[in-house]
Amino acid sequence: QSVLTQPPSASGTPGQRVTISCSGSSSNIGSNTVNWYQQLPGTAPKLLIYSNNQRPSGVPDRFSGSKSGTSASLAISGLQSEDEADYYCAAWDDSLKGVFGGGTKLTVL
Amino acid sequence: EVQLVESGGGLVKPGGSLRLSCAASGFTFSSYSMNWVRQAPGKGLEWVSSISSSSSYIYYADSVKGRFTISRDNAKNSLYLQMNSLRAEDTAVYYCARPYYYDSSGYAFDIWGQGTMVTVSS
What we know:
The complex is a heterodimer of chains A (about 110) and B (about 120). Chain A has about 110 residues and is an all-beta fold. Chain A is built from no helices and nine strands. Chain A has strands at about 10, 20-25, 35-40, 45-50, 65-70, 70-75, 85-90, 100, 105-109. In chain A, strands 1, 3, 4, 7, 8 and 9 form a six-stranded mixed sheet that branches. Chain A has a three-stranded antiparallel sheet with strand order 2-6-5, with no helix packed on it. In chain A, a hairpin with a 2-residue loop joins strand 5 and strand 6 (about 70-75). By secondary structure, chain B is an all-beta fold. In chain B, strand 5 and strand 6 form a beta hairpin. The interface between A and B is medium-sized, with 28 and 24 residues. Chain A: Immunoglobulins are composed of two identical heavy chains and two identical light chains; disulfide-linked. Chain A: This is IGL c6_light_IGLV1-44_IGLJ2. Chain A: It comes from Homo sapiens (Human).
């Protein structure tokens, strides 16, 4: 049972916009920033969004993040086949321990 | 090139011990705190432990506290995870991860190793 709650799956067709939610509590998302990771099959995770809504260099602007209260969201617009991957939200807890969501498997139909 | 390379994984019996290593290169290792994150087969990511740059601050997930010990050797640019009293539920790929500090209140993991597999089974 993960500390942060994500839907186990999401899907969309090429070109569509999809969103993935992440729910936490006042001790993690509610008081700290949220990061998002993308994990392609058989590879290590890759940082996708940091500090709620910032993209690292090289991440397309099709990816965006937001946070409100104790929840956060990742949005992917102009969905592409290469976006098919697992997506994880993450935050720090007030006890200085890391917490992750259970992951969302995105399927591009 | 900034790189993290884990080693030391393998098959171990329940109750046994294993020591993982993470060799860092391409950056000033002694300036960064470091973390271990694991992923059980077919499951999600789980933060395991973190250690500050000078080893002054150490944190563990409740699931491993008292059994795992994180340490580092800045002279050797290396991070370690000593795992004792291993259980079947510790079976996972273990990644070391370097932080990207974006402000004073938090950081993300921008550099990950390739991972090393630990299997706990009789």
